Every structure is written in C-alpha cells, then in structure tokens.
Amino acid sequence: PATACGDAPGATLFGAARRVAVLLPVPVDAPYDYAVPPEMEPVAPGDLVRVPLGKRIETGVVWGEGAADVPETKLRPILERLDVPPMPAPLRDLIDWCAAYTLAPLGQVLRMALSVPEALDPPKPRTGYTARVADLSETTLRATDARRKVLEAARAWPSSEPPPAAADLARRAGVGATVVRGLAEGGALAPVPVVEEPEITAPDPHRAGPALSPDQARAADVLRAAARGGFSVTLLEGVTGSGKTEVYFEAVAETLARGRQVLVLLPEIALTARWPERFRDRFGAPPAPWHSDMPRAQRRDIWRAVAFGRVSVVVGARSALFLPFPDLGLIIIDEEHDGAFKQEDGVPYNARDMAVVRGRAGAHAVVMASATPSLETVLNARAGRYAFVPLPRRHGGAALPAIETLDLRAHPPEKWQRQGMLAPSFLAPPLLDAMDATIRRGEQVLLFLNRRGYAPLTLCRACGHRMQCPNCSAWLVEHRHRRLLQCHHCDYRMPLPETCPACGTADALAPCGPGVERVAEEVASRFPTARLVVAASDTLLGPTAAAELMERIEQGAVDIVIGTQVMAKGHHFPLLTLVGVVDADLGLSGGDLRAAERTFQLLHQVSGRAGRAERPGRVLVQTADPEHPVMRALVSGDAETFLAVEAETRQAVMMPPFGRLVALVVSGLDERAVIEAGKALARSAPRAADVEVLGPAPAPLAVLRRQHRHRLLLKAARSVRVQPLVRDWLAAVKLPPGVRVKVDVDPYGF
Ligand code: ADP
Ligand code: ZN
C-alpha cells in the first residue's frame, strides 16, 4: 500500500514505481531520478514538483524519463506536484540548449526560469464577506442603522464579483470596518476565503493603428506574414524615426489576433523610456513589464499571469526570455545590436541569440529591429538565414540630421574663469556658438558624454599620486554633488580627501578629464540663464524619475541636457535640434573587438535624437581623429562601407562572427595561484586543427573586487564545435583551492 508523500522514503512501495528525471535549480549538470508515487500519476515532462534533496526540499521540473541506475532502494519519491501549468516544452528546449552552448550547469540555467520561486505557491487567500441571513432579526445582534446598511450592502453585492473585503463592504455602506467584523462574529455575515489574481486588461489587437506610409505598409505586410508562419528570423532595419516600432506593432497585432502571446525584448535602459505608453496608445492596455528592478511581488504576479496564459504581451529585459509563455507566437528584439542583451554574470548568454533558439523551439517568428544592426545579424541577413526588411526613410519626411565632425586639434576648447582661476574646457568654440544659436531659437541641446560623475581621475598635482580603488585596478571617479570618490566597478566609496593620501599636500588633488557633472559646471557658467539638467543612471533614480524627466524635456521645460547613454535611446523630443558629442573617441581606445562597432552604434543612436519633427537637426561630433572610419561613417551615413571594413578586419584575424571565441577568466584572491592556474591551463590547452589558444594575460580589469583575473582566449574556425573542446580542457586541469575559471562563449566586450 502506498504511504503518504513526505513519509520516510521507504523502499517498500517503489518496487514497481515509475522513475522520472527531475531537474533542480541548483548548480548541477543533469537531472536526478525520483520515483513517482502511483497515485500522483500522470506525471509528465514539464510538471513542477517538490522533491527531497539531502535534508532540504527543493522545487524542480520533470525533465524526462528516469534513466540513471540508482538502485530502487535509494530512489526517493516526488513529494508533491504543484498546481501550476507545466513548463512549456520550447522553454525546456531553450534551457537545454542554453546550458549546452554556454557550458553553464543545466540547473543554473533552470534557475533563471524559476527566478521567483514564490510564484509557484498558490496566492494567499484574503477574507471576503457574504450575507448569511436575510434580516438581523435572525440573529441575536441588535439592529443598528450601521449594521442594517452593511447587511444590505452585502446582500446587494453583485454575485459576478468576488465577495468584498471588510474595508470594501464598509466603504460601500458608509460605515467603519469594525461593524463588518461585528456582524461576522454575530453570525450575520459569513467570512469566506477569496483567492484573487491581479486583474489584467488585454491589449486589443483590433484597434486601428496609424495610416502607414507605402514603405511601412510593405514592411508590415512582410512581418505579418512572418507572424502567421512558423519559425523565421527577420531583420527590420531602419533609420531612427522611420517607424520600426509602428511597423512591428502590426506583427504584434497579428499574433494577438491569433490568440498567441508576444514577447518584446528591449535593452534594460530603454525600459525607462516611453515604450509602454506608446504600446498602450496603440493597443488600449499596457504590456506586462519584466526586468530586474521590479518589486518582487510584481514579478511574482506577472510570472504567474504568464504561466497561466493571462498575459498576452510582455515587454522586458533579457531575462524575460525565460518566462513560461504557454503559447508564445512572436519575439521582437528591439535594438538588437545592444550589448545589454549579453549577460555577463551567472550564465553568460546573449538573449538576442537565445531568442532565435526559443523561436526555433516554439516554431514561431523572431523579429530583430535596429537602426544599426550588429555585424553578426547583417551577415546572417546577407547569407539568407534571416529575412531582411529595410525602412529607408524617416516618417513624415523628417530629414536626417546633418552630422559634422568638429576637429579638436583645429578648434581647441578655450579655458574659462572658474572662481577666479582658469579652468579647462571640454567644449570647442564652434559647439558653444551652435549651442547659443539653438537656445536663442527656443530649441534644445543635448550634450552627450558617456561618463557618469565629475571626473574619471583624481590626481595629486604635487606628487602625481592617482586615487585608485583599493579593490579593483580602476581609478576612483569623483562625484562632486555627493562629494565623494566612487569605484564604478565595485561601488567602493570614500569622501574626497582634503590632502593627498600619498604626500600629504593640502588642496593638491585635482580632477582630470570630464564626466557629465563637470561638463554641466562649464555649461552653467557659460549659459547662466539656460535651464540645465544632467541625465545619467545615478542622477535619475528609478524609471518614474526618468519618465518624468523625459516628459519635461519633451514639453520644453529644459534647454540643455547633459547626458550619458540613458539619453541615447528611444526618446523623441520635438524641440531637440542640436546634439553635441563631447568626446567621440572615448569608446575607441583599448583592444576591444567591438569598440568601433559599438561606438558607431552609440553615436549614430545619439545623433538620431536630433531633429525628428519639422525642425531639422544638427550633430557636432568632437573628435581628435576625424579620419577614423567610425567618424567618416557617421558623417557620410554610410554604415555599409563601415561594416564592410569591419568585416574585412575581423575576417583577416578570424575573429567573430567569422571565427569562434571563448574567453576563460581565471580568478582568485591569491595572484600567484591565479597565474599558476593560468599557466597550467595553457599547458593543457586543446591542440586541434583551426584552434588557437592565446594567453594567459592579465584580463582588462586585472583586479576586480580584490580578485586577480587572468584570461585565456580560445579562437577557432566557425566549423569547430568549441564546447566539447572546452569541457575536456577544463576537466583535465586541477585548479588550486580558491581559484576559479569562468567560461564565456562569445564574449561580448573585451
Ligand atoms: P523608430 O522605431 O524607427 O525610431 P518610431 O516607430 O519610433 O521609429 O517612429 C518615429 C516617430 O514617428 C514616432 O513618434 C511615431 O509615432 C511616428 N510615426 C512613425 N510612423 C508613423 C505613421 N505611419 N503615422 C504616424 N506617426 C508615425
Ligand atoms: Zn572597485
């Protein structure tokens, strides 16, 4: 006879029990076998279950039939099958695929899909009240006016609505909530448990969108057809303002009309913008958001709503890809080129690439949109693996901004008076003139500098000492309005010292180079009557503050915005006609594979903020190297030539996307042990045709959070399957205690 689940896992009952493999969200490479108590059947792949693991109880997912040769007597039973829909097969496929590709433990990938474990618990019921009697005379309660009103309200409560809480009922009757409880105690009202899931309004796919231009209509037709078909990937490429969003909304409408769900992935930063509002305007209801900054309770609600199929559209950051959509029909990846889709911590995956895997597994369309698609995606489109849909023109005939470089060698910025002393300037005279003219016309200026804080380096004028992070090989960045020095890698903070910590000289520490705050200081002095605002991730606290600021800018309440990349994307400011790029060369230094591509994408995107409506825009790009291919491509608008040169350069050295790349970062507190481990890895590096191992060498951040970091790079031809090579390689090297290796397949920026 079967014992109750949760009893001691006896051997007695499982003689003939079926066994299944259950994957747990812990760092393991494979599922474990468990026995299915016969009365729990049918148990099928995807079912969420609770099982014993050591002395704990864990929640996992049935992954398939049990196979391992665990003796029957050792097999432990599944304790409970949870009352949530099974994890859909395409999501399980994605998890398998993602683990195999990134070499992350399978259970660790599952963990991303079960990121809010409390979402698996049934919602806690609240107490509602229904009338138990027709009249108070049926009880021993004295019939007061207040009591009569409450009983009446309870009897009149529409049966289509869940029974009201005490407060709701009291409000309806116009009395205090204690009256309700008194009536319940006296037997006039019955308390009933009510389980409520938050109400979700469905977007309406049949609302009319804007009238599309012929270009847009053609593009929308292609996307709608893709949304009706099976698996496909389409690149929608169009300059900023060409209407990519309006066009892919048509594919969203098509998918919703067919009763399937839609996922829109945006780079984290773009979620603060007006996207959800635009969606609501188009479809009459907001999309469900999903990103890491959301309150846990909200994430719980949305996870459940997705799992139960009550949500039809999610707009989210990369982790939304691991939500349990029961019938996903379309994924859109907006700003497909954005580095934010690559996760660096935990499982290092690129959501853009994994979206394609999810689309194939679910047999539905994937659409990538960008004004500056990545080289990978462009090559995929050229090779015919992705369909290509261009949107060549800005909507409504708005002109693209005129982009000019401003050669800093020919136009050196002139020092200005700061508290009676000459201070360095970061703005060349022609830019200052253009700013002046723009403000006089009542238009707006955006100065773009992708650097938070006041100055990236603080240096002692007496001894040359540089203020460095004690935990990282990085300079401390001055944040003047908060009067502190801060590490942008580990968040170490210290007050700005009065004297140099090395030589003790007073007042000798000086800022070096500009951050947005320092540019703002100069602008405030040169344009004393202009209304300024600094927009950076540390000055905009939260999505609400960001949205408010964007609205103020849109309404013309600001003259000059000095912003980092939070200002680069998605916004549409009708009065903004001048963009000044303070330091276009900033991202180009260093040996990063994607430095040029990324700089081009970012600067192109920022330029797109200028002149989107009737007023033409102008972009001035300050650079010390106007002949650089990135600057030339920006000015000419010729992304094609730029990408061709990029492609050639990378092909010559067999770098991605022409070759494969895997980074191995060895880290630990003890530098000597890290170096030794790096050398040991190099000694047993795989020797195979078309495979090359470089390093070890200090990683770009050689010390991070006190961890020393050395790196090896495995480079291989595209035809090589690198995962088995790397797996065998790691298995062959025994690491000393305290040293770990992080594998990053397709590292993004390095
Ligand atoms: P992109 O995503 O390519 O930058 P958007 O879809 O954001 O372009 O469109 C830019 C602006 O033009 C938006 O304000 C959008 O509402 C407007 N727009 C685009 N297409 C149309 C259209 N067919 N009718 C009306 N407004 C449009
Ligand atoms: Zn640090």
Explain the overall architecture.
- It is a single chain.
- By secondary structure, this protein is an alpha/beta fold.
- It is 29% helix and 23% strand.
- It has 19 helices and 31 strands.
- The protein has a seven-stranded parallel β-sheet with strand order 10-11-9-12-13-8-14, sandwiched between helices.
- The chain is globular, with a radius of gyration of 30 Å.
- Mean pLDDT is 91; it is low at 1-14.
- Residues 210-213, 216, 238, 240-246, 395, 572 line the site of adenosine-5'-diphosphate.
| Estimated radius of gyration | 30 Å
Major sheet attributes: 7 strands, parallel
Beta percentage is 15-25%
Return the structural class: alpha/beta
Shape: globular
**Spatial ordering of strands, largest sheet:** 10-11-9-12-13-8-14
Number of helices: 19
Helical fraction? 25-40%
Number of strands: 31
Q: Which residues sit in consecutive blocks of at least 5 with pLDDT less than 50?
A: 1-14
Distance between the termini: 61 Å
Which molecules other than protein and nucleic acid are bound? adenosine-5'-diphosphate, zinc ion
- Mean of residue pLDDT values: 91
Oligomer, anyone?
single chain
